[in-house]
């Protein structure tokens, strides 16, 4: 049985990834307690990726407890009623596997990569900490210090991270994307073990989770194992979080960040549409293509003109990801070369988008860009773990994994006129937030060592 895909997607699958063309489609099951199970068989190597995704992230936090989703992620490795702190990781290592976790604005996920015969063992471990996590006050006190040091290391000591934290806080005034995933330092300093426990008690339930298993597995056996280890975990009444919709922006917002850095930097963030309906949201697919036109391959417009030809920037970029539970941004950014100011580079970046809006793109350029973009989507499937990630992100952001191939088709159908239209529609000042880094002198202080217990 092959993927039910049509036209361009099928052609690309065969041309670029022949092995994937013979893979089985993902199968989906639902346990009686509401836990979704998605299994994607791929028998090219005797390995498997096992992931449990919770549809809860930093966007669901309340003021005063920002960072609690990430803090709980750390506590998930600190023991259950049957495991000592650190024993979860030790057991996975003893099985020859790798494991970790990550928290985003939209979700929290836990994973193990293992030899296929070890799947049952890691599934039992994951079910245990969903149902039987222990919250020790002393363990939490130690771990929240690790989280605070992680914030210092990855945000406060990194100029670019400080810029993007400030950028999000300015771009989103009402929506909880305003807050950093790691949390504000003051909230971390006042966080308690009860906060973490309440988060787990409220949201960590089978009916708020999706298991994704990919690799050399049998879907029926995975379903049976899921029933065995997760099926007995009781349903919880999951609170419905309020939308906190972002009000309409009226006028450009500007912020300045001063931090030790070698070079100035500027980032322009434009409000852009989120993918909600694969069939109807044509602007989303056109913006994906526009992002690739600007910065999707070696000879894309931004680096070709501003870095290599005019040499007014040391680096430039464009980024856009439409998969999210909340609002998204289309970002243009760059580091100016000597003799160029951030104000000048800001104008030059916007000029490139205006050029597309006014002149469009040629059919040859469009074809080349779409080839690159679609190929990058398909190459991700070379990895068993990459397949699990793709499925999980789609599901957590409200798009069925069954639509993955249709998105590739839609990208292939984007026209030059659609690219020109979105370049004209979404890049005005009423949707723009600009963050500028003003570099301060670098100190002679050596970077701090990563905190003990830092997981990802």
Q: Could you please describe the fold and organization of this structure?
A:
Pfam families: Peptidase_M16 (PF00675), Peptidase_M16_C (PF05193). Mean pLDDT is 92; it is low at 1-22. The protein is α+β, with helices and mostly antiparallel strands and 456 residues long. The longest helix is centred in the first third of the chain and has 20 residues, at 137-156. It is built from 17 helices and eleven strands. It folds into two domains: 7-229, 2-Layer Sandwich (Cytochrome Bc1 Complex, Chain A, domain 1), CATH 3.30.830; 253-440, Metalloenzyme, LuxS/M16 peptidase-like (Cytochrome Bc1 Complex, Chain A, domain 1), CATH 3.30.830. The two termini are 38 Å apart.
Brief account:
The chain is α+β, with helices and mostly antiparallel strands and 456 residues long. It folds into two domains: 223 residues, Cytochrome Bc1 Complex, Chain A, domain 1, CATH 3.30.830; 188 residues, Metalloenzyme, LuxS/M16 peptidase-like (Cytochrome Bc1 Complex, Chain A, domain 1).
